[in-house]
Specification:
Order of helices and strands: HHHHHHHH
Largest sheet: none
Radius of gyration: 19 Å
Strand content: under 5%
Number of strands: 0
């Protein structure tokens, strides 16, 4: 809502609606900042374990799992482009193999996971899911800058990103605010944050 407010207030109507590529960044950035604040303030060990686990689960569900979703969608389109019929059986086998690839051999194998793709509504809107992973990476990068640099980073985030609407290409918009999604750095940095919080959980447990 705040992202929409800033964009609508700062931009003319034609440029006030931000693109889907950045649609999840602002809300997720707030979640990251809230999690950091809660972890800084809590003195309860059980609460700390819960918060760390919740944050790690967010990474798993958004950065890892949505990337798997995007690869599934890409594979399905490539399969169709080859002239092969997109049957439920073919898609289910494709999805099962990706689950095994992403979650590894140590994960208990459930054959029924093959049918999960059928209940994911985002697959019925082509090329939607990828932006959760990219948006989450950008959000983690923004939250890290805000935590480390304070007001200058906040001002840059608000003025260059939240107020930007679609006045620039999404990549250029993010870059102007300090996050360059044309490079692997934001994703690599997000994975480093994941590893850092995983170590914190291991120490807490």
């Amino acid at each position: 809502s705040i992202h929409s407010y800033y964009s609508i207030t700062a931009q003319d109507y034609a440029y006030s609606d931000y693109k889907i590529f950045v649609a999840e960044v602002a809300s997720t950035c707030n979640e990251c900042l809230l999690m950091h604040d809660l972890l800084e303030k809590t003195t309860d060990k059980e609460q700390r374990k819960y918060l760390l686990n919740h944050y790690l689960d967010s990474f798993k569900g958004t950065l890892f799992r949505q990337t798997m979703f995007a690869e599934f969608e890409k594979n399905a389109h490539e399969y169709c482009a080859q002239g092969k019929p997109l049957t439920a059986e073919a898609l289910s086998q494709m999805y099962l193999e990706l689950n095994q690839k992403y979650f590894g051999p140590d994960m208990e194998k459930d054959e029924e996971i093959a049918y999960e793709w059928m209940r994911i509504p985002h697959f019925y809107t082509p090329y939607y899911v990828y932006q959760y992973s990219t948006g989450y990476s950008a959000a983690v990068a923004f939250s890290k800058m805000i935590i480390e640099d304070g007001k200058p980073a906040v001002d840059k985030y608000i003025n260059n990103f939240l107020c930007g609407g679609c006045s620039k290409d999404p990549i250029d918009l993010l870059k102007s605010a300090g996050v360059d999604m044309s490079t692997p750095k934001p994703v690599d940095d997000a994975l480093n944050v994941f590893e850092d919080y995983l170590k914190k959980l291991e120490i807490t447990v």
